[in-house]
Design brief:
It is a single chain. By secondary structure, this protein is of the alpha+beta class. It has helices at 9-22, 25-29, 53-67, 126-133, and strands spanning 32-40, 48-51, 68-81, 84-95, 101-113, 116-124. Strands 2-1-6-5-4-3 form a six-stranded mixed β-sheet.
Amino acid sequence: MGLNESTEPADVVRRQYLASAAGDLAALRATLAPDVEWTEMAGFPLAGTYRTPEGVTANVMEVLGRDWTGWTAHDDSYVVDGENVVVLARYTARNDATGKDLNVRVAHHFVVRGGLIVRFEQFVDTALVRDAMA
């Protein structure tokens, strides 16, 4: 079974990162449960909890793509415990308004059930993101 068919939590999460990096929002939505809860950290420009695959891509990925050039989450290390997947990663991008580059460490906590992401929570140094926007 290849990465695209696997329902193993780490494989589902990896598909989400690959789809995001490719700008394939339909493939990204396919990794999300219909009742997904996707939380961007307080202090982050898009802070809040978004629901439904369409809500996540419209309010997070499409906004990041509009305001930043090359926004990418580089997934470096995975820690898996049952349905919990924690990914240590790095965001890189250039803010379109300021021209400033962003390069910041981040941790993501995913919960995967039945081959779909049901919950996501972001942990990031929001001050570094805001510095790139100011």
